[in-house]
Amino acid sequence: MKKYVLAAFMFLWLLPAVFGQSNYNDFYDKSAAINKTGMYVLGGWAIANIATGAIGWSNIGGATMRFHQMNLFWNTVNLSIAGFALYNYLQTNAAGLTPDEILQAHRKTENLYLINAGLDVLYVGTGFYLKHLSSKKPKKEDLLLGYGNSIILQGAFLFVFDAVMWGIQRNNRLEYIDNLQLSVAGDTGIFQFGIILPF
Questions:
Q1: 12: in domain
Q2: How many domains does the chain divide into?
Q3: Which residue has the higher pLDDT, 151 or 179?
Q4: Quick check: 143 and 57 in contact, CB under 8 A?
Q5: Fewer CB atoms < 10 Å away: N or C end of the chain?
Q6: What residues make up the domain containing 45?
Q7: Is 45's pLDDT higher than 90?
Q8: What is the mean pLDDT of residues 19-32?
Q9: Candidate from 16-20, 32-36, 101-105 with smallest mean pLDDT
Q10: Does residue 85 fall inside a structural domain?
């Protein structure tokens, strides 16, 4: 009888470590997959804008040329950001991260999308300001109007992108937290069992 009690105790001792780790790994994998998809979307937008920007810059004049010119410049940065982020995801090994580190990294990314959405509003405002200035500076009208329209477009796209990514990642985190949670508390070896039930 004592052997069965000991075996049951050992099972309960090991279960949270195994289940909890799998749960955190699944959460990390889903979070990383969402971010990768987002970076592919951003990279695709950037490539399309660079291609059309190069054509428009070389074949069209006036404010439209400046519009395409800024689209090309702006999306060179977007493509660099997407490429750098995708490279980092390839280099990151989730097996070396603790559950707390995984959750903290997710929260940082989630907050980054939210902060960027705020910056995107400033970009759009800057674009409208440049358009306003174009009517007061005839010598730079094409430049200011074209750049202004481009920054409005890019800022609006990025606002939608960042807001959607923030919303998806936030829902991912809340869904994870709402699930059954089993864990072993640090080095203390204390068994913890918790269930969150929505009412």
A1: no
A2: 1
A3: 151
A4: no
A5: C
A6: 20-194
A7: yes
A8: 76
A9: 16-20
A10: yes
